[in-house]
Amino acid sequence: MAVAVPGELNLLESPNWGSRSVDCFEKLEQIGEGTYGQVYMAKEITTGEVVALKKIRMDNEREGFPITAIREIKILKKLNHENVIQLKEIVTSPGPEKDEHGNPDGNKFKGSIYMVFEYMDHDLTGLSDRPGMRFTVPQIKCYMRQLLTGLHYCHVNQVLHRDIKGSNLLIDNEGNLKLADFGLARSFSSDHNGNLTNRVITLWYRPPELLLGATKYGPSVDMWSVGCIFAELLHGKPILPGKNEPEQLNKIYELCGSPDEINWPGVTKIAWYNNFKPSRPLKRRVRDVFKHFDRHALELLERMLTLNPSQRISAKDALDAEYFWNDPLPCDPKSLPKYESSHEFQTKKKRQQQRQQEETAKRQKLQHPQPHARLPPIQQPGQIHPQHRSVSTHQSIYNGPPQAVAGPSHHYNKPRGLLGGPNRYNPQGTNSNGGYNQNRGTQGGAGYGNGGPSYPPQGRVPPPYAAMPGNNVPRIGDVTNGFGISAPNYSQGAPYGPVSLPNRNQGTNITDVNRNQQYGWK
Ligand SMILES: Nc1ncnc2c1ncn2[C@@H]1O[C@H](COP(=O)(O)OP(=O)(O)OP(=O)(O)O)[C@@H](O)[C@H]1O
């Protein structure tokens, strides 16, 4: 594994960066639509090399070049690893551009700036959303190991990703997985003790400490997201699909138990703890809910989905977990099947088109009803109509395994259909919490159901947090009820922060040192 000395990474840069025109590339098709703008598959005209062009959106004239783009470029330029996407160069377009319909693209600036990346055939969300897609256990292990290896490299090199989710994990047809979208990433240094924003990481993958308002945090935030991805791969659907912050925390507490001074010393001192205190303590249920997972998978998942960030497993330790060293072993990436290109944007688009076609067909049918060629089958009393079966067999994750899960067959079988899983989307594009900016949230989300695609709230642009102390936000327990009336009388323990955290290890290698310092970073 390539591990570079922090601060001395890949510093040699081409003097030509930014000097070439986007005209050196032929755009082939749009493969992504992100916060910055569009992502295209493109071909370099002279060499024929296929790349991904990510256009940097510069709509806001006054703010100039977006800070997120500057950060992403700066960070990607210093990272060089087989499990991290490679930024090849920056290119510019000198004149005004047209969109795919030939209209001016709305950019008030004359030119545009593009990041040129190596091209990847899939993102994990797009790939897992392919009809009939099943991941085998060796395949899941293979992806997880690469994800952890890439993340360990970032953490060792003092970079927090802060937006780990399926659509940011890119996979090529050689089976390689690479971390992408460093737009929310930031460098941290061991000697910096300032505050960081807690409005990062897509809601479903956001750890409890950020939801509770912590502003001092470290690599463990990424490890929570990895735990969510891991469970999602094994379970077949997202495990914590909250619609807003209070609901997200509530889902976490229902699964992982409520935090207290015993399982998480210092938690009661975190900014918004009191706003989200459950009305009665909840028990941890990870083992129960995921009892269909194999023993080693469950062990590792427990350590990833640990409420207390200082106790959460690091990427390095996760790579040493029994899970990766027991049969079936992770497969060789090259042995994985090749799939037709599948990006979240495309699968989402295909579903939309399919829905439109279905609606048109329905409308036509209503306008021109066909005489019945034959009578519908007679339904016996008590017999479920086949078309309704998915309704009656639908189970929430808390009622046991999903309809089709990675069971003994070691296959990942994604539940489908409108009622086949939690609604990954918020079709209205609003959320009941109010006040939460969905800036990142309108374009994401292919998912596991056929519901309307709109990703849950995300944190690229910090919105006013509706659940701030003093705001009238439902407390945990009020959201879904059933948690009793009396609030627990939690003891007041050590303060949350650098002083109170146990020094977990005395290791001297670079990873250990970094891990020990995880609460001292900005
Ligand atoms: N190098 C690449 N190769 C192939 N596809 C890519 C590449 N980079 C990005 N994509 C596709 O474009 C999508 C959006 O890219 P990315 O996440 O980097 O943009 P973004 O503006 O940060 O989006 P978001 O706001 O959703 O995070 C990805 O989910 C992926 O499907």
From TrEMBL:
GO biological processes: positive regulation of transcription elongation by RNA polymerase II; response to virus
Basic and acidic residues compositional bias, start-end: 335-347
Annotated GO MF terms: ATP binding; cyclin-dependent protein serine/threonine kinase activity; RNA polymerase II CTD heptapeptide repeat kinase activity
Listed Low complexity bias regions: 376-385
Protein name (database record): Cyclin dependent kinase C
PANTHER family, per database record: CELL DIVISION PROTEIN KINASE, CYCLIN-DEPENDENT KINASE C-3
Entry GO CC: cyclin-dependent protein kinase holoenzyme complex; nucleus
Residue spans of biased composition, Gly residues class: 442-452
Keywords: ATP-binding, Kinase, Nucleotide-binding, Phosphoprotein, Serine/threonine-protein kinase, Transferase
Species lineage: Eukaryota, Viridiplantae, Streptophyta, Embryophyta, Tracheophyta
InterPro entries, alphabetized: CDK, Kinase-like_dom_sf, Prot_kinase_dom, Protein_kinase_ATP_BS, Ser/Thr_kinase_AS
